[in-house]
Design the sequence.
């Protein structure tokens, strides 16, 4: 396709900007279509020192798991060997929730009350296996909101619904001197995993089993517009849900009585997950481990890198560990 339309130029569905059909009626990749062979080749120029930064948390983190998800049960299965091998051992994973740790949210993860799933396709048509077969290899840029807020004397409140506004995201990238190019993966660091690790076990357990409050992008149109107009291929953060939580802390109840135009009112109450995953087709990453990468970027002043991510080749998969690596 040619030049992408701006956010305000997109057609609307129920008063929300919608990108359905930009890549055809059966599209299952969304903005991952922007990772072209040419952009992957160009991204290789970001590799200058061979410094490698794995971006996945351990599959056992956060501990305990968030949002009522069950912890991974890892068992080792043994059987007798032969030909000089004493025994064979295999990993057997029980209760493996693909979104219990660092994760990509796939297009089957959420549907919109008024919209269904991305592209208007049946949810069974989607799956992270499509993303795995396409591959995610390209340029990435880091917006280190945590350091930027610290420098401004407004540290991110990790235990509260601290909204990261679209203007802050734009200003952070500008102050870093970090241009965003079409097809980039945008990584957003708040510092949440490091803060979480610093809590004692009882405190983590209490927070994980209670209604959680955590920082993240604002759920409204401003952040959706900023991300779309950057023409990113995907966006990932180190926070539990990319957008601020709980949504009820910043959004009116979706089912509360409505004054005025009901279509507009419901649009204003829509989460960023629906705006990005359902309507714009922008993959969401959560709980990425960005600490080492961010420290290196702060040290050398360069906030871009090459990124590879290999989601599980799981047909119909809802989400996946990113298996992501940044290289500088």
Sequence:
């Amino acid at each position: 396709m040619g030049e992408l339309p701006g956010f305000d130029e997109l057609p609307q569905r129920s008063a929300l900007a919608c990108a359905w059909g930009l890549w055809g009626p059966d599209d299952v990749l969304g903005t991952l279509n922007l990772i072209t062979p040419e952009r992957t080749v160009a991204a290789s120029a970001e590799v200058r020192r061979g410094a490698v930064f794995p971006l996945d948390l351990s599959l056992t983190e956060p501990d305990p798991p968030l949002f009522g998800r069950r912890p991974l049960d890892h068992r080792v299965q043994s059987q007798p060997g032969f030909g000089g091998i004493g025994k064979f051992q295999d990993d057997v994973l029980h209760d493996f929730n693909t979104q219990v740790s660092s994760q990509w949210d796939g297009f089957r993860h959420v549907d919109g009350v008024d919209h269904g799933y991305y592209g208007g396709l049946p949810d069974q048509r989607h799956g992270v296996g499509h993303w795995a077969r396409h591959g995610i290899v390209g340029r990435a840029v880091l917006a280190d909101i945590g350091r930027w807020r610290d420098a401004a004397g407004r540290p991110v409140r990790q235990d509260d619904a601290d909204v990261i506004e679209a203007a802050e995201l734009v200003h952070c990238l500008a102050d870093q001197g970090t241009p965003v190019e079409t097809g980039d993966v945008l990584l957003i660091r708040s510092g949440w995993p490091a803060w979480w690790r610093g809590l004692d076990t009882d405190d983590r357990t209490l927070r994980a089993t209670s209604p959680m409050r955590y920082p993240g992008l604002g759920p409204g149109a401003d952040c959706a517009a900023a991300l779309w107009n950057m023409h990113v291929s995907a966006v990932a953060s180190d926070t539990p849900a990319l957008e601020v939580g709980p949504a009820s802390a910043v959004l009116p109840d979706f089912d509360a009585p409505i004054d005025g135009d009901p279509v507009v009112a419901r649009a204003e109450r829509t989460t960023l997950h629906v705006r990005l995953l359902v309507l714009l087709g922008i993959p969401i990453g959560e709980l990425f481990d960005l600490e080492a990468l961010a420290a290196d970027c702060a040290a050398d002043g360069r906030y871009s890198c090459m990124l590879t991510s290999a989601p599980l080749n799981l047909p119909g998969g809802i989400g996946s560990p990113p298996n992501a690596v940044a290289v500088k």
Q: What stands out?
A: The longest strand covers residues 136-144. The domain at 7-70+97-327 is CATH 3.50.30.50 (Glucose Oxidase; domain 1).
